[in-house]
Amino acid sequence: MLLERNLALELLNQHVKNEKMIAHCLASEAVMRALAHRLGKDEAKWGLAGLLHDVDVEDVNGDPLVHGIAGADMLKEMGIDHEVTDAIKMHNEAATGLERTTEFQHALAAGETITGLITATTLVYPDKKIASIKTKSVVKRMKEKAFAASVNRDAILECELIGIPLNDFAELSIAAMREIADEIGL
Question: What's the pTM value of the predicted model, to 2 decimals?
Answer without folding.
Answer: 0.97
